[in-house]
Structures are given as C-alpha cells and as structure tokens.
C-alpha cells in the first residue's frame, strides 16, 4: 500500500509539473475565445488513466478505497478561491456566463467542505455526504461546460483566453480533474458504507436471534 501511496504522489507531482510547464510554454493558450483541445486533453487524460487503473487493478482499488474521505473532502476547501472568477468578471476579464456560476459554485463547495468532512463523512450521514459530493461534481461539470461554450452563449462578452494561460490554466488542467477524482473516490467509499452497515446489521440480528439460523 505504501508503494501505491508514493507512486500516486509522484504521479500527481509529475502531472502538476507537466501542466505548469505546458502552460509556461503557452501550449494551452487559445486566442479563439474558447477553451481549446489542448486543455480538454490535459483535463481528461488523468481522469481516464485513473479510471482505467482503478477498474483493472484490485490492489490499487483497495489502496484508493482506504484513503481518508475526510482528507479528500477537506481538499475541496481550496475551491473557496472561486471568488477570483467573480473578481475577474467584475473587472471585465472573464465573461459573466462562465465566471459567476463557476465562481459562486466553487465558493459554496469550498465554504462547506470543512463542515462536510467533519460532520458528514460517516455511514450515519451517508446520503447527505454523497449528495454534497454529487453537487461538487455538478459544479465542476457546469463550469467546464460554460467555459467551453461561453463564446456561443455570450458572443460579445470578454474572452476566455485568461483561463488558458498561467496561473488560471492550472485550474482546468490540474485542479478540476484532481477534484473530480477526489469526489469520485468519496462517492465510491460512501456506497461501500451501506454494504458494511448492512453486514453489521445482519450479524447483530443473528446474535439476537440465533435460533433463526438453525435449519
């Protein structure tokens, strides 16, 4: 398990260095007023790699499901910095059609992440925990969708070019896929809580009614 931990940290670090270096070289820069193919590929690649690894490797899956859901949820607190999008929209740098939903959505998730991690990351609050994770995913998906279609939805608004250069290019190429993966892990873990709770309940029932197990 420790080896998977070190490998995962190394892969995340390598992924960050790639996103940072590519951004520094303006490989993601797009002056066509929309988020381009380069950013889309950079955002999707880690999600695809993680999903395939998770689906095909039992040991890696066990490692992932042993991660602390509270820590993964606390990581979402960084999304409080979504207020940056709102500020840039007020300055006319980003289009409102993207900046306001993405900014306020991120702030809502970031502001509640600590509470969710401390109070809801347990089997007794399973459904609420999953609901919050789903809302976090919906916010990210909505932001990406609006970012890629902003030019069509608001043809006379500001350009999206700011999101394709440093430092904001790290949001779609590194942070968004990382947060999506964290949300996915937490939901998968929470679904397992139900099975574990069910097994515990059945065992307790057998202890209380031992005669029912006699053929």
What does this structure look like?
The chain is an all-alpha fold. It contains 8 helices and no strands. It has helices spanning 2-24, 37-56, 58-65, 69-74, 83-90, 96-120, 126-153, 170-208. The radius of gyration is 21 Å and the shape is globular.
Short descriptors:
215 residues, mainly alpha, 8 helices, 73% helix
- Number of separate helices: 8
H-E order = HHHHHHHH
How far apart lie the N and C ends?
Answer: 42 Å
Mean pLDDT: 90
Classification by helices and strands: mainly alpha
Q: Can you count the beta strands?
A: 0
Share of residues in strands: under 5%
Sum up the overall morphology in one term. globular
Low-confidence stretches: 200-204
**Rg (CA only):** 21 Å
The biggest sheet, with number of strands, parallel, antiparallel or mixed sense and barrel status, is:
none
The helical percent reads over 70%
Blueprint of the fold:
Layout: H1 2-24, H2 37-56, H3 58-65, H4 69-74, H5 83-90, H6 96-120, H7 126-153, H8 170-208
Helix pairs in contact: 2-3, 2-8, 5-6, 6-7, 7-8
